[in-house]
What does this fold into?
Amino acid sequence: MKTYAFVGPSGTGKSYRAQMVANERGINYIIDDGLLISGNEILAGISAKKAPTKIETVRNALFQSEERKKEIQDVIKKRKPDSILILGTSDEMVKKIVENLGFEPITETIYITDVATEEEMAMARDIRVHQGKHVIPVPTFALKKDFSGYLLDPLQIFKSKGKGKAPYISEKSIIRPTFSYMGNFKISDTVFKQIIDCVVEKSESVHKIHRAIIKKHEELNDGIYIYIEVIINYGYNVNETMQILKQKIIKEIEKMTSMNVLGMEIVVKGVNLNENINK
It folds into this structure.
């Protein structure tokens, strides 16, 4: 397996350009900040950007944990890629990652200055410093599970490669790490309850919500638990109706907030006999 390095100072746009650099060299696998990525899929690892401190970020990015190291190595052995692109802030950092993972020595090093102008790098630095935003080179849907509550925005890239050549098109995700000085990205419980209300209002089988309780996973902030009590209309199959309602609520909350629903319980507290009595 040939090992390529993509090197540049933090915040200069490496993750933004990683897939394009890999694509131009026929590389299908990327290691970026603790993640092993292939195409639109995260294959292994936990993003260093989710670490609670900057020290832990460095440890994750260098694969100093035996557990994380083995996870990456197992996928590489199974997939047997021809080449891989490793991102790092310095030559020494990439070399350390290669040594820790037991890869072959670096074949070629590409520097951010080879693919980005001074103006582009300055703009990337400004976004990193003043807005605390980071890019991960995978679509948002691939990140939702790992970055519940921290996603900021999907980012689509379209770049012309010249007349007669197919354009480069990719999707990336902008996130704010947990250690950001700007603070955690939080969603009010009221938002979840309003989404649930909207779903219930569209349901013919449910008369009203009796009570709704939202509980966050406080330690990890990686999702929520939902408990709701409902009054259903007479004439509907309770089990079937509640399963459908549960799926719709989970789908809407995860789509609209990027927050994982870790568990959900629906309790039927009563039956409304005033509607659908003829069913």
User: Anything to note?
Assistant: The first strand starts at residue 2 and ends at 7.
